[in-house]
Specification:
The protein has 298 residues and is of the alpha/beta class. It has eleven helices and six strands. The protein is globular. The mean pLDDT is 93.
Length: 298
């Protein structure tokens, strides 16, 4: 159950009191597991399937083999994509842009990027030489910050004011993020297909988390699923971001499967940093799968 320790502590003490009063079993839930299984509430999806979880706090690729049976293929080595996009939006002062004032950072980047030319700035995709499924976003953030500082000098704009080139910068960072996510996901699909970890037909890639609502990123992932004969599935936006429904559904899944149901809550504790499943990312890196170049025409 990864998350903020204080919030987890409050939630756990309330839950334990409630199950004690009602004499019900207690089902601990892993936050990321809940995100991964949400799709089975809205769509008929059989195990196994691949899941890409992308949000402001998380970024990982995992093979879902069953309720509480996960293989972790890769994760972000630093920050999450949503966090990086929010930081870029803040550095671009997009709250001062008339069209973006009421939007979150990620939404503002997506909105402005539609008006921009991504080719005006050359951003190198992160970790392009590493043949694994891990992610990294801090290098990209620093590269964008350098460009913004440079453009402020060129345009004679003070920090805190909106640049004339803001839309082009937004388009470039969004495209580079989309390509990075797409390439890692493509490698994960190829790895699973080569190892016989995914079925040869009706293969599904599930994309969830707040960043999954970015349509440009979805389009990039669609190019990958088309190239690998997969179905791309996303829960509806209201179930993509953190929500109580996904936790309740995860409880139902575990109850039905008879997995992790506690009748004795003695010694139950929360874990703010709790890894998901069995980490096989080293094995994925050792396979060093070369991903075919896709034309990212989005």
């Amino acid at each position: 159950m990864p998350g903020l320790a204080l919030s987890l502590g409050v939630g756990l003490s309330f839950s334990l009191q409630l199950v004690g009063q009602l004499r019900k079993p207690f089902i601990p839930i892993h936050h990321m597991e809940a995100h991964a299984l949400t799709i089975r509430l809205t769509n008929e999806v059989e195990f196994p399937f691949l899941v890409l979880l992308i949000s402001g706090g998380h970024c990982l690729l995992a093979l879902v083999r069953g309720v509480a049976d996960f293989l972790l293929l890769g994760k972000s080595l630093d920050i999450a994509p949503g966090d990086m996009l929010d930081k870029v939006a803040r550095r671009l002062s997009l709250t001062k842009h008339p069209e973006c004032a009421a939007m979150s950072g990620g939404k503002a980047i997506e909105h402005l990027a539609k008006q921009g030319n991504r080719l005006r700035f050359d951003l190198t995709p992160p970790m392009h030489r590493a043949k694994n499924c891990d992610f990294s976003f801090t290098g990209l953030q620093h590269a964008v910050n350098k460009i913004i500082t440079q453009k402020e000098k060129e345009e004679g704009v003070e920090q805190g004011q909106v640049l004339a080139s803001a839309a082009d910068i937004a388009a470039a960072v969004q495209h580079t993020t989309a390509c990075h996510l797409a390439k890692r996901t493509h490698r994960a699909l190829l790895f699973c297909q080569q190892r016989g970890l995914l079925p040869s037909s009706n293969t599904a890639l599930v994309v969830s988390g707040g960043v999954a609502s970015n349509f440009y990123i979805r389009k990039a992932l669609e190019l990958v699923t088309n190239a690998t004969q997969c179905a791309l599935l996303c829960p509806p936006p209201r179930l993509c971001t953190d929500n109580g429904v996904m936790v309740a559904w995860n409880g139902i899944e575990r109850l039905r499967a008879g997995v992790g149901i506690l009748h004795d809550t003695e010694g139950v504790r929360y874990e703010p940093k709790c890894p998901l499943g069995v980490d096989i990312s080293k094995e994925v890196g050792e396979a060093a799968i070369k991903v075919p170049q896709l034309k990212m025409k989005i």
